[in-house]
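Worked example 3 (structure in, sequence out).
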């Protein structure tokens, strides 16, 4: 029938996992379209936390099919660990997970290349998650990659060795010590387990499902400001995180897309290096980090924190064609007397509401508007119309600047802590 897309509008970790899990029963299929185990999507169900890196966030809802699309890069070891953890929780992963034959594999040597490249960059490192993402996408576009469907070929081992040899050659340019033997053994064992899963031509599967009246939710990873083309380059990830990436990463046509649901935190965070105009490198930033528990779901690194940035969000709304906005982590601001919004940037004395091309080189002074906070726990509210005026005023400001309606407000990590319009 149609595809809706849910994706992050900031620098990742907006709470995509929680919202996909909530929305999953309204769809037949949840499909990841890009990224890999650099993602960490957190679900909190009946007080129990689950972090998903590769498997779509619909897996905890019964009867929903989950597809890892062709645009995703897969570390077999991480995937098998996820499968094992979920299976132990009683989830039918084998029955409800399909893996695209065209998705690319992250090899142990891709991870070494990622680490060696980061080490060589020194102070200008990207702050990558060291999961091998960039070298794997480089091999994909360089037409050297190893794909999931290749494990069905008789010469898979030779294919693997050829790619590995190329990596070992590349690694000679770095002064970087490594040993992949143990990792390689685990990798091969994981491949054997993956053989037992449904490996499919997912573009056919998804398009047939659409023809048969099924509804698909495409789940983004990372966020718009980490997009390889439109993010804060070079401090970005290596895939297209924006809505058009869903068409490429799943093989569905743009005419099949219905809603684009964009998610943003009530404030802003970033993990890793790179520009962050509204960053609060002060006590207020630390307060947000502590109350918000802002430490990475994948790497455990402290996240950088700051006020919500409507310039970046407006850019993200434009790039994605956002039709509805979800604001998460509103509860983190429950005790704030006032809340700041960045509504424009001052770049070299000039005010602008556009993202400068050289965002990583210029000094940006954010221009703020301040509104009163709500100063109360919002979780008892179940209805948008009953929300205090301070909250509707706050949401109204976001809607006015972005030109799209807010459809959900998340007030806690738990599945049920959500106010839906
Ligand atoms: P994702 O990568 O976009 O799925 O987000 P992460 O899981 O990396 O990070 C979001 C974090 O915030 C996780 O720890 C979630 O459990 C948590 N979370 C999501 N929504 C809310 C919310 O509304 N309030 C609070 N306090 N935590 C939330
Ligand atoms: P989810 O899906 C936040 C960041 C890294 C680094 C940059 C490049 O959980 O929102 P990479 O390993 O992709 O080469 O790292 O991108 N990054 C993320 N930040 N959330 C993520 O995913 C991220 N995935 C990558 O910190 O700055
Ligand atoms: Mg995350």
């Amino acid at each position: 029938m149609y595809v809706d897309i849910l994706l992050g509008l900031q620098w990742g970790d907006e709470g995509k996992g929680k919202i996909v899990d909530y929305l999953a029963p309204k769809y037949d299929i949840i499909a990841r379209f890009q990224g890999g185990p650099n993602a960490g999507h957190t679900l909190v169900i009946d007080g129990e936390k689950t972090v998903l890196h590769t498997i779509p966030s619909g897996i905890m809802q019964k009867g929903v099919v989950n597809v890892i699309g062709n645009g995703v890069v897969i570390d077999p070891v991480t995937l098998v660990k996820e499968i094992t953890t979920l299976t132990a929780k009683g989830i039918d992963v084998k029955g409800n997970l399909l893996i695209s034959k065209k998705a690319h594999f992250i090899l142990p040597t891709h991870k070494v290349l990622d680490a060696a490249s980061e080490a060589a960059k020194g102070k200008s490192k990207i702050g990558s998650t060291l999961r091998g993402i960039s070298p794997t996408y480089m091999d994909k576009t360089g037409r050297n990659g190893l794909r999931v469907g290749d494990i069905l070929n008789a010469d898979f081992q030779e294919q693997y060795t050829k790619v590995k040899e190329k990596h070992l050659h590349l690694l000679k340019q770095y002064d970087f010590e490594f040993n992949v033997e143990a990792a390689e053994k685990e990798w091969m064992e994981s491949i054997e387990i993956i053989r037992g899963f449904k490996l499919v031509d997912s573009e056919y599967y998804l398009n047939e499902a659409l023809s048969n009246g099924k509804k698909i939710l495409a789940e983004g990873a990372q966020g718009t400001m980490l997009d390889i083309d439109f993010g804060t380059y070079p401090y970005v990830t290596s895939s297209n995180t924006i809505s058009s990436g869903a068409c490429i990463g799943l093989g569905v046509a743009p005419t099949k897309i219905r809603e684009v649901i964009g998610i943003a935190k009530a404030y802003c965070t970033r993990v890793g290096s790179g520009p962050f105009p509204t960053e609060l490198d002060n006590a207020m930033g630390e307060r947000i980090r502590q109350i918000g528990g802002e430490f990475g779901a994948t790497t455990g690194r402290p996240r950088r924190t700051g006020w919500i940035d409507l310039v970046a969000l407006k850019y993200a709304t434009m790039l994605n064609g956002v039709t509805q906005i979800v604001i998460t982590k509103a509860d983190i601001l429950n005790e704030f007397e006032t809340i700041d919004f960045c509504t424009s940037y001052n770049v070299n004395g000039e005010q602008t509401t556009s993202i400068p091309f050289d965002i990583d080189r210029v000094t940006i002074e954010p221009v703020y508007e301040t509104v009163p906070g709500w100063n109360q726990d919002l979780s008892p509210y179940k209805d948008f119309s009953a929300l205090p005026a301070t909250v509707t005023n706050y949401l109204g400001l976001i809607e006015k600047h972005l030109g799209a309606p807010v459809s959900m407000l998340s007030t806690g990590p738990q599945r049920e802590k959500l106010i839906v319009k």
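Notes: Residues 8, 12-18, 39-42, 44, 297, 328-329, 331-332, 410-413 surround guanosine-5'-diphosphate (ligand 1) (CB under 6 Å). The chain has a mean pLDDT of 96.
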